Amino acid sequence: MPVKNTRAVMIQGTGSNVGKSMLVAGLCRAALRRGLKVAPFKPQNMSNNAAVTVDGGEIGRAQALQARACELEAVTDMNPVLLKPETDTGAQVILHGHAIARAQAGDYAALRPRLLQGVLDSFHRLAKTHDLVIVEGAGSPAEVNLRSRDIANMGFACAAGVPVVLAGDIDRGGVIAQIVGTQAVIEARDAAMIRGFLINKFRGDPRLFDDGFRLIEARTGWPGFGMVPWFDGAHRLPAEDAVDLRMSRGEGLHVVCLTLSRIANFDDLDPLAAEPGLRLTMLKPGKPIPGDADMVIIPGTKSTLGDLAFLRAQGWDQDLAGHVRRGGHVLGVCGGYQMLGRVIRDPLGTDGAAGRTKGLGLLDIETEMAETKRLVRVNGEALGHPVSGYEIHMGQSTGPDCNRPFAHVPGPDGAVSRDGRIMGTYLHGLFADDRFRAAYLERLGVTSQPGYETGVEQTLDELAEHLEAHLDVTAILALAD
Fold first, then answer.
1. What single-letter DSSP state applies at residue 450?
2. Which residues form the CobQ/CobB/MinD/ParA nucleotide binding domain (predicted)?
3. Helices in 381-451 by DSSP H: which ranges?
């Protein structure tokens, strides 16, 4: 049953990638600026871009950004169910920050009662300790074929009694059909939960859509809360999904990151993308590593062994060998670090089929996978400078190159080759630290631009102001009363 006196409002979307995460982040910061104690909440997320929480679990990275918008530490209750895809049909299921199962798509229905109860428990805890909870849906409520096992959209909204605002994306076209069509296909009880709509990502003169806006209101009977122009500062906030990965706008040192099939925690790269003194290329599958690359990054991945095979299928192993022969630098992060070694052993089949797999051989280390996942925030020193970050991985790496650790946090982390050009680390988020980023880039001849974290804060404020200027934020928040 819904909690009495719960103040909450939910943003659902007409589809994936319509900007729900950013809308919630902006509304959270707007509510905070109005003096409310506000918290973000997403019942279920599907992403390999995870954050380590202060209570020792993991949640979707977008909810960590939303927590920051609320000036809160991220906790597992903000995203109680996280699905981390491992194959095209299977995912690791995270409940309250910790893995409970590996499930195929067809197995998920059996887990629904347990997951829904976990979702409601988390929501109720947040609701009891905050003035307002702003909830983000997932995908679209129009996926009515999934309604019977839904806990992310109307399944949650109905169970918790939370009013919904439906967001459409005009940039992709067909926004009238998006919103009117959603009402046409969902059940009447679900449609009754929707109290209005908004339109996101408008470019141009908004007056040109006045007739369309009124048509949607007339066809649906839902009031419109406004039309949000394209927010130019979006690129300064961590990307919520791998489809949002962008090339950088800088020039100079050429840094190439391999876009693995299960790339994870890719917002590690956001501070580099913001640097004007380097050019970051997100290399797509099927493309060779450019000959002018100065540094190649092998990023984190949800499946080290699966993406090692994927890397080899692209011919990137041969390209990397050539890059190193030419004097290039390589940085492996987490799963990418494990790939750099001589061998990866997986005796329990934790990351795939049990057995032994040959690594890239660029670092003299060996990795053994384990069932236990390490989830921890860390502080320490790297390259002689303070560094902070987090670890989220399974397995341990040992070998001669570990005698030259990448960092001390406070114990030794990672490994460095004898010539210093090949480095590996389990640390995520390290480039967000201005001091470490400056030291790392200085070794490569680049002068870093400080203020990345300050820039994120400024952008969240700008986003809140943007929404206040173009939406009836007062009316949206009043739905929670």
1. P
2. 9-241
3. 434-442
Helix, strand, coil share of the chain (percent; to 5): 35, 30, 35
Options 323, 393, 428, 466, the catalytic residue: 428
Alpha-carbon dihedral sign for residues 268, 273, 278, 279: positive
From 334, 402, 466, 470, active-site residue? 334
User: Measuring CA to CA, which residue among 6, 316, 381 is closest to residue 160?
Assistant: 6
- For residue 428, indicate whether it is catalytic: yes
Decide if 255 contacts 294 (C-beta within 8 A).
Answer: yes
pLDDT digits (tens, 9 = 90+) for 30-46: 999 999 999 999 999 99
Q: Is 218 exposed, middle or buried (0-12, 13-18, 19+ CB in 10 A)?
A: exposed
Report how far residue 255's alpha carbon sits from residue 293's, in angstroms, rounded to the nearest whole number: 6
Tokens of 481: 């009363």
What gap in Å lies between CA 216 and CA 387, rounded to an integer?
51
170-174: which pairs have CB atoms within 8 A and are 24 or more residues apart? 170/199, 170/200, 170/201, 170/202, 170/209, 170/227, 171/200, 171/201, 171/202, 171/203, 171/230, 172/15, 172/18, 172/201
Q: Averaged in consecutive runs of 10 residues, what is the pLDDT profile of the chain (481 residues)? A: 70 95 98 98 93 94 96 98 83 92 80 95 97 97 94 96 97 95 97 98 91 97 97 83 57 94 88 93 96 97 94 98 97 97 93 90 96 90 89 94 96 96 96 92 94 94 98 97 83
CA separation for the pair 375, 53 (Å, rounded): 8
